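LAB NOTEBOOK - FOLDING QUEUE
OPERATOR: T.R.
BATCH SIZE: 2
PURPOSE: Compare the predicted structure-token outputs for two unrelated chains run back to back under identical settings.
PRIORITY: normal
REVIEWER: second-year student, initials M.K.

ITEM 1
FIELD SEQUENCE / FIELD STRUCTURE:
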Amino acid sequence: MRFPEYQPHAQPPSTPQTIRRQLRTVIALCIGFALAACGGSDESPLRTALAQPVVAEATPAGGSPGDAQTATFAPSAAGPANDSASATDAQIAAAQPALPQATSGPSAGGADAAASTITPVVTSPDALTAAPPAAQPLVVAAATTSPAPRPGANSSSASSAAGSGPSWATYERPFARDSLWNSRPVNPVLDMTVIPPTRWGPTITANDYSVAAFLAQASDGPMTVHGPDGQGVGDPDTGHARPITVPRWPAAVAAAPGTDGHADIVDPIDGVVHSFWQLRREGGTWRATMYAWAPLAGRGWGDPAHYYQGARATGVPSIAGLIRKHEINDGQPLYRHALALSLDASALSAQPAYVFPATAADFNAATTNTGSIPQGALLMLPAGFDTARLRSAALRKVAETLKVYGARVVDRNTTTRFALYAEIGSGFNLMPQGWDNAVAEDLQIIADALRPLVSASGWLDGDGQSFVPSQKLNMLSMRGPWMLEQGGGGGSFDSARQALVFPSTGSTIVLRQTSGNGIGRLAWAQLRPGTTYRFSVEAAGNATLKLEFRSPSSYAVTTATPSLGHGQQATVTVPTDGSQLVLVATSAGAAGAWIRGRLVEE
């Protein structure tokens, strides 16, 4: 992306040219799918491109990834700006719930600092040296069984008690109250790293390269979005390109005019944020290059299992950290959430390319980035930064937010020192009367002062309650590929349910997954030998799931759990001999059978 040049004493170009950072997903998906269809190795370009492995489910003989069924996301079962020179402590306190004294928290800003030393993994899972029992590739079929509840639809931290504060997980306040978007560090300690100067100065943009949020209503009808040139829409979670059907499509949906074509649809009925990249309308057909979804009541970030939850490079929805229409003139001295920020390659780190809570980065980060700030990092203004020196009330509000909540690095831009994002159509404009040297100078002052977070004494959620951000998240995905070991029919991974769905056959079906792709391999979320994890199962139709570790030399079982049904759980300690994780899913062939597992460090 490219933005107007904000330099003191110089007029900006009248029509800024903009450039997309790269076609990161569609190229990777197309190459990865071609290799999968041709029997390519696990070391696919798709894995490298997204900085962690994603393996498409096995394609039936004679078929192609383009033959995949349409993915339908069914309903879940389940005032004026402040003109004062600087916001006072009393104003900030009035703008949010009472902030209790934080208890002692992690020594490095939650998990942020600890994660910053971890190198991203871009290799495929190690292959078993002894082949597993012979099995036929699983034929991927459209799910016809009743839906499983959508994970994350009803988060315990999504809403506040009556009268205690704002509601969370809504169109206006997306994600849970303890999402790191809605939370703030206490006593932050900042690094000395400075954002380097670039060709274009910093900006806060509500133009063609930002995004708008659209609210789905019960009366809205469904819409199927197709891929470019008749191909499928890239879906990193499944590893397939396929048409995507959104059950409620607002009539007002319009993609951002820039080449990014961002658009996010917030559906509070299903509790979902649908996030598109390069969305456009061609005649009567909607097309997009990439799609991902996030739980509206979730973290606002991916996890090791469902690692890509939005169209930003870091896998977050484009509305995350967005300055929204309803916030701009609300009379408050700051925005009550972290902001979304992009940096040029000269500021971004090549390794690690991303840190917690981010789960992805631009695909060519290792070869393009030359700086030291990883995506996912939190940048803040020092507590002593004097916002009174800023000559724009709108910019002072942003600066106060950067002092309290900061901004997360979510994307890469092209030669812009930093970019923050306001909602398209919000009317946000720091220079309403035309080019303003004073505002341009103040933006550079902010850029000079922004620093990455190193540590904090604790964290406060959106309701002002102390909590500790945790990296102990679900690591187990059901995406496969699965091999048919017994029975007829097959099964399918349903991203919307994060579940393996079985067909109704009336006879036993046994599926085995040996690739290791059931574990979301992120830089900051590796299975650690000698560590104990809790394995739990949700299921219907008497389906069961078993977790095994098998010797890489003999394929003998070294550790295993029982076959677990709905509501059951067990603990398992990862062997230290390099054993490979294997999942065994079984269904009696009953109608409506599905299963999903969770694996979380104790």
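ITEM 2
FIELD SEQUENCE / FIELD STRUCTURE:
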Amino acid sequence: MRNLRIAAVLAIVCLVLVAWAKAAEAPTESSAPSATVTRIGQGSPAPAETPAPKGPPIVTTDEGEEVALTVYNDGNAIVKETRAISVPAGASEVRFEDVASTIDPTSVTFKSVTDPEGTTILEQNYEYDLVSADKILEKYLGKPVSVVTQSGTTYQGTLLSFDAGQVVVGGGKEEPLSIVARQQNVKSISADKLPEGLIIKPTLMWLLQSAKGGDQKVQVAYNASQCSWKADYSAILDADDKNMDFSGWVTLTNNSGKTYKEAALKLIAGEVHRAEQPRPTTMLARGGYKAEAAAPQFEEKAFAEYHMYTLPRATTIKSNQIKQIELLAASGVPVEKKYLFDPMRDFHPWWQQPMMEDQFSVAEKGKVQTFVIFRNDEKSNMGMPLPAGRVRLFKYDNKDLEFVGEDNIDHTPKDEKVELNMGVAFDITGDRTRTDFRRGPGANWMEESFKISIRNHKDAAVIVYVREHLFRWTNWKTTASSQEYNKLDAQTIEFPVQVPANGETVVTYTVRYEW
């Protein structure tokens, strides 16, 4: 009986242990494993666990890719690439090589054209630890290397340390310690193979999940900096300064660290707002200058609040290259030459009370500025919205083309007037003298009078526009004037002054301020 009781107790214990074991194996909601993954692009929900990639990394380069480049005039560009890859079903590691070295990894977008719902990126790393001699040596610290000097002496052993001046090899039980001067003394340093973790091109590393696998076409877009464009213009005046030939060129500077082969090129003109971000300051070496004739020209259209210029053909933009492509060309554009005498143009008063100083602006000598004015409209053989840029003015001396001035223009819509400051007129001079100043006994008014003399040493009569700024107070009126004037704004007037050939014209006026 005693043995039977012991056997029964042992059987019960075994049953309890089996029940405990099964309960421990059963998954519960509280004990289920979880993992956080990064997903880019569209596709099915990510698996609960990050899957291990199958096989070696799949490498895709820019050979045979389709590239589109949209460049902004703030130094940024959007790179759009379409590439073909072959991936297995499930998880795989993809090396997307040949991206711009100035890529913003946070801006990457991904889409599989072949399987948009079933293919997605779970994780992404941007690898930019590019190969260099010192980085290879750093990876080989503690490993065997062979150092050969210019004299032919070979040092073999463990690489212990290195810097710009020397290499330290050996130091083991059977290896003599050798300190070898580097610089001009070392001919070569050799090792077994390229260490892992180093790459030769900027690369995006993806953990990609594909439901179907097979050949796929994928589209990737990202922002790259240090790729910019600007507009440069040339204007050739005719002999009488009545018409001009006007041409514009796009100057594209690519310091993004990538060559864009046969790219579809678009340019965006306008002031695009961007959130402030810390940016890398590394600048690549600027490449050579290249001018390229453009036929056909860019096609322009309004886009959002900006203007887009599309080149209707593919073009290759090399890394570290400055490329020029013609933007527009117009001939027979009517122009007007304007002479302006504005001696107080740099004075900007701040009115909190009337300016009572009686010794201010007693006498001023100024230079007469020359402006070339045209209208950007179809009637003038123009009409394309002009991106901001520099305009260089030229004129023929017999058969020789000579430079006569330059100015910058802002973004200019169609049908707007453009004024270009050509420089200072050599043969036209002017001076401004105050001839009277009075202040009322109650200190609530004042008057001042001026004489402005314009002298023309040319053999032809000219019109000089004399601009006056009535800055002493906001409430004013002219009580006397030798000729009519135009009121430009609340405190600026302008006299159109006829000056005869080799002659002089004097303008006088009196202004009264009250408060």
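REVIEWER COMMENT (ITEM 2): Confidence is low (pLDDT under 50) at residues 6-40, 279-296.
FOLLOW-UP: none requested
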